[in-house]
Amino acid sequence: MHSLSNRSKVVVKKEMTLTEKMYLPAILGGMMITIKHFFKRKPTIQYPEQKREFSKVYRGRHILKRDEQGRENCTACGLCAVACPAEAISIVAAERKKGEEHLYREEKYAKTYEINMLRCIFCGLCEEACPKDAVYLTEELAPANFDRSNFIFGKDKLVQPVGTSAHPKTYKPYKK
Amino acid sequence: MDQLVFLILSIISIGAALAVIFSKNPVYSVLFLILTFFSIAGHYVLLNAQFLFIVHIIVYAGAIMVLFLFVIMLLNLNKTNETSKSMLPKIAGAISGGLLLIVLLGAVKGLNQAEASQAVNADMGSVKNLGKILFSEYLLPFEVSSALFLSAMIGAVMLGKKNLKDH
Amino acid sequence: MEIFLIDKIVLIVAVFGITLLFALYSTYAERKVAAFIQDRLGPNRAGIFGILQPLADGVKFFLKEEFIPAHADKALFILGPSVSMTTALMTSAVIPWGNSLELFDRVISLQITDLNIGILYVFAVVSIGVYGIMIGGWASNNKFSLLGALRASSQMISYEIAMGLSIIALVMTTGTLSLGEIVQQQNGSIFGISGASWNIIYQPLGFLIFMICAFAECNRTPFDLPESENELVGGYHTEYSSMKLGFFLFAEYTNMFISSAIMSSLYFGGYNFPFMDQLGLSHNLVTILGTTFLFAKIVMFIFLFMWVRWTLPRFRYDQLMRMGWKMLIPLALINIIITGLLIVVLK
């Protein structure tokens, strides 16, 4: 069979030559390899202090965006929930009352908007489906926790805080 | 000082030797035998025979007793699989041991004590002196014993080989 | 007499402390060397570069639960690690850690005791060292431990023979059994360089055999069959926990340090270093430099131990035995014959 990588070696079972029988040259060869690795630059990233740079299209935890006047974009149309292949999103809609115009952009809004971070596969289909520019995936990782119930992110964790940068990719909820 | 060390060593060696006989567990017996060897090695140092001291430890404590312990650990002797023994081997053992004791007593009685103490000097047991004596005065016994060891070694190898062929 | 005793006690305590310190930091070095060879960084959280890691490990060892299995032989279970540790530390008595210092109007030798049978003493202590493992392994009352102990004892006995034979060739060239004298003899000059006539030049094959046997005696990879973790769980120390396990592990590193010191003294000139008499320094300064050089050699050997460990896989048991009996012993005998012939011809 033709080799794809050209690195495969054909195994031949033949008598060992004298230098091979002495083993020492082979051992020295092996030790040369290990000592080469000893002086190599280590690829380790010291995690909490150092962080690997994310790709520009990285899909992390979600935010629910506000517009320039600080109003929530989401209109609770449910398209994201329909698009979600993992069925991680659940929405309860409510009607905007008088006097709440500064809070919600549309007449209908999401009373609760929950994403189960254990179900979410971070595919980004909710982002694609959203007609109102409301849900985005940021570069943030969903943080670890000891309790499963804490992985159900409600609006308290998802909605972009007032006065922060509007662009979802530069938005950093934990570093203000 | 020497007297005190001698006393301590003697007590240890006799006590350990008795423990070899009286301990129920064969592994303990072997360990006490090792202790006995060490205290006897200590006596060699008191007699300025350092070479004998170290060879005693290397050969007896370091090699032979390791094999001994090895075998006993493998056999795993204990009370449950000990077969009831007849009186005959016990009597035979007592008689042969008693005979050995008589021979040893006779040999010790025959020693001229003054001569023994005279021969002890600081350099007597050194490797140099021992080597010189072995290769001049006692050359024949030395070579004969080495031939004996060689034949024993060849015999052991032959026995091992024969077993291999049978299987 | 009393001053002599005080000198010796100070020296013994110093050697004891240094040996333990080296053993302690060998564990750290081992982890670091392993990590670097495997393209990792190793422990680096406790202190700068993780240098406090051994202390953390020590604290952990002390705080762990002392556990003795119900069917273990209690007395022997405790005796095992103690014997291991004691014999590991005993050898340091005859190693010349340096020449002599001239302090307070008297000459202080940096060797605890110069026995005229120094090499044989080392050899005897090494041969006793196996009891710790055997007793510990048997007393655990565990099949794996017993197998580990049996492997250890048969391996040690097999490699002791080759080791002894390689030493005999060395003794033939030096003409003495005292370690102090052997090191002093290597002070001679070669090609006009003083302090460089090391025994490795006269006994290269002997050194190779001795080194391989030292690896086997220390139970280091590729000869770590007594504790081969993928066959015997933990080998002879399977049932051990807490500081008793610590003693077994510590004894291994102490053995490594001591055998590095012995290899440096026997074959690599001990405290001698090139140009030592040509620099025109005072005696004390040369001694201190020499001791530094000895420790540099020891560190080099310890590194070699670790380097080999993280390079070579473990031998199979029949390979181990074949190597000991069918390769090393005949080679050592050939080495003795060649040495004898050369001595006769050159004289």
Describe the structure.
- The complex is a heterotrimer of chains A (176), B (167) and C (347).
- With 176 residues, chain A is of the alpha+beta class.
- Chain A has helices at residues 18-21, 24-38, 79-83, 125-129, 155-158; strands at residues 62-64, 89-95, 108-116, 135-137, 152-153.
- Chain A has a 3-stranded antiparallel beta sheet with strand order 2-3-5. A two-stranded antiparallel sheet of chain A has the order 1-4.
- The longest helix of chain A is centred in the N-terminal third of the chain and has 15 residues, at 24-38.
- Chain A is elongated and about 95 Å long.
- The termini of chain A are far apart.
- The mean pLDDT of chain A is 82.
- Chain B has a domain at 1-79: Four Helix Bundle (Hemerythrin (Met), subunit A) (Up-down Bundle), CATH 1.20.120.1200.
- Chain B is built from 7 helices and no strands.
- Chain B has helices at residues 2-22, 26-46, 50-75, 87-110, 113-119, 127-134, 139-166.
- Chain B is globular, with a radius of gyration of 20 Å.
- Chain C has 347 residues and is mostly helical.
- In chain C, strand 1 and strand 2 form a beta hairpin.
- The N and C termini of chain C lie far apart (43 Å).
- The B-C interface holds B 27, 31, 34, 50-51, 54-55, 57-58, 61-63, 66-67, 69-70, 73-74, 126-127 and C 76, 115-117, 120-121, 123-124, 126-128, 130-131, 134-135, 138, 146, 149-150, 153-154, 156-157, 160, 177.
